[in-house]
Amino acid sequence: MSWIVPVTLKGKFAELIPLEMGHMPALQEAAADGELWKLWFTSVPSPDKTLAYIETALAERAAGRSMPFVVRRLADDRIVGCTRYCFIESAHRRLEIGFTWYAASAQRSAINTECKLLLLQHAFEARDAIAVEFCTNFFNVRSRAAIERLGAKLDGILRNHRLMPDGTLRDTCVYSVIASEWPGVKRNLTHRMEAPANRAS
User: Fold this and answer.
1) Is domain 9-198 classified as CATH 3.30.930.10?
2) Is 18 helix (H, G, I), strand (E, B) or coil?
3) pLDDT tens digits, the chain, 201 residues: what are they?
4) Please, are residues 129 and 123 in contact by the beta-carbon 8 Å criterion?
5) Edge-to-edge strands of the sheet including 67-73?
């Protein structure tokens, strides 16, 4: 049995549902809200590349390397983004939370904070993870700030780490939360969810 298995995670504002091919139209609509694929430092698929994006994610799930989710906003039942457990190392109980993006209408809301809380809680409390990583482009200042607000710590910067679709080389900022830090991080995220003024992330 795989260490990470399909699971639906539900909070007050959002629900994380295992990705399926039938989610393609909703994901195309979500990505069109802000034309997110035009942000060169992200991996949001354009409408014509969404099928390949989903096929790759599902293939990685079948291989035990990823567990992709769509994000459903409970207020209107709309799919507003995507995220996943990725680079899963079952033998070492480590994984990364990545490939995360949200429609423009869902950004700077409680949704990202709650999704991170749900994913981290499941990883540490249900799957006994040792460490959870977050990686982002050095130039994605908004993403870096959001990760730091979660309570993750910067482990370092991997230079020329990834080749981007446009041929440029990406420097990757690597953050992590380790098991011993989880209680404090959980307290921080829970407080942010309970304080309306602090919900945006």
Assistant:
1) no
2) strand
3) 579 999 999 999 999 999 999 999 999 999 887 676 766 556 778 888 899 999 999 999 999 999 999 999 999 999 999 999 999 999 999 999 999 999 988 887 899 899 999 999 999 999 999 999 999 999 989 889 989 999 999 999 999 998 877 788 999 999 999 999 999 999 999 998 886 554 444
4) yes
5) 9-10, 14-18, 67-73, 78-89, 94-102, 131-137, 169-178, 153-163
